[in-house]
Automatic annotation (TrEMBL):
<keyword id="KW-0997">Cell inner membrane</keyword>
<feature type="transmembrane region" description="Helical">
    <location>
        <begin position="248"/>
        <end position="269"/>
    </location>
</feature>
<dbReference type="InterPro" id="IPR004513">
    <property type="entry name" value="FtsX"/>
</dbReference>
<keyword id="KW-0812">Transmembrane</keyword>
<comment type="subunit">
    <text>Forms a membrane-associated complex with FtsE.</text>
</comment>
<comment type="similarity">
    <text>Belongs to the ABC-4 integral membrane protein family. FtsX subfamily.</text>
</comment>
<dbReference type="InterPro" id="IPR047590">
    <property type="entry name" value="FtsX_proteobact-type"/>
</dbReference>
<keyword id="KW-0472">Membrane</keyword>
<keyword id="KW-1133">Transmembrane helix</keyword>
<keyword id="KW-0131">Cell cycle</keyword>
<protein>
    <recommendedName>
        <fullName>Cell division protein FtsX</fullName>
    </recommendedName>
</protein>
<feature type="domain" description="ABC3 transporter permease C-terminal">
    <location>
        <begin position="198"/>
        <end position="315"/>
    </location>
</feature>
<keyword id="KW-0132">Cell division</keyword>
<dbReference type="Pfam" id="PF02687">
    <property type="entry name" value="FtsX"/>
</dbReference>
<feature type="transmembrane region" description="Helical">
    <location>
        <begin position="188"/>
        <end position="212"/>
    </location>
</feature>
<dbReference type="Pfam" id="PF18075">
    <property type="entry name" value="FtsX_ECD"/>
</dbReference>
<feature type="domain" description="FtsX extracellular">
    <location>
        <begin position="81"/>
        <end position="161"/>
    </location>
</feature>
Amino acid sequence: MRNILNPSPRITKVPLHKRFLMYWVNHFQQAVGSLGELWRTPMASLMTMAVLGISLALPASFHLLLKNAERVTASWDNAAEVSLFLQPGLSDKTTQNFIQRISLYNEVDAVTYISKEQAVAEFREMSGFGNALDYLDTNPLPAVVQVTPKPQYASPAGAKLLLAKLQQEKEVEQGKLDIEWLERLHSIINLAVDSVVAIAFLLLASVLLIVGNTIRLNILNRRTEIEVMKLVGATDSFIHRPFLYTGLWYGLIGGMIAWVLTSSLVLWMESAVIKVAGLYQSDFRLLGLSFSEFLFMIGLASLLGLISSFVTVKRHIHLIEP
């Protein structure tokens, strides 16, 4: 009789697959809801996202600058030719044997022989002192062998090693490598790379601070709502989730804005670069962000927004108690 009047509550067990489905449905609802919260204040949200986009576009633009500069300097590395001045009095057979021998070096890509007669003809044509050569009894210029290193040995360090190796040959009187300008160029590029990395870290840190401060203000504006949610028994993860998705949206849309700004900058500068390249008979074209670089930038921006919001939420929501 007692069991009939006061029946015990029936506990219904929800299947595992339904709980799994509802978990993701709940996440989707909160993600859409957080996007709706941003839409309620479009100007403020857009301004924050624009600041994030500019902060991310600056290091991306510097990266493209270095990327295109390395394309240009890659062809200049091949200009690191080694000039070998041969000993006077070498026979043609000895000279040809020497050329064949060094052409078999693993570091050597091409070998060009300039005879004494060719050297005089080039000097007469290019120097403007051709008439002075007519007063000389003998040809003062030596035969020269120009050695072009392979691309993997065309760097300043590799070319110097090749020069030292070639100077050990008995047929060589003197070797010369006009590499100082290339060393200065590589030093400038390395300095630019270090500067870009430092600036990128500072700008990415600013992204963290901007998102963190924006989420903090959102938490303070919804303080009363958070207190009510805690009173009715909402879990911390349920309260945290909308703010985490807000940070994710800030990073994602900020990354998209950064991509648009970077691509627009490339398109704006492309015509000027084509005009300058045409003056040097070059078909050089600016490279933009590749698809993998685009995905990396979007992923990094989203991750920064999520990390910043997570740190802020953990700190400030814990301090709110009803």
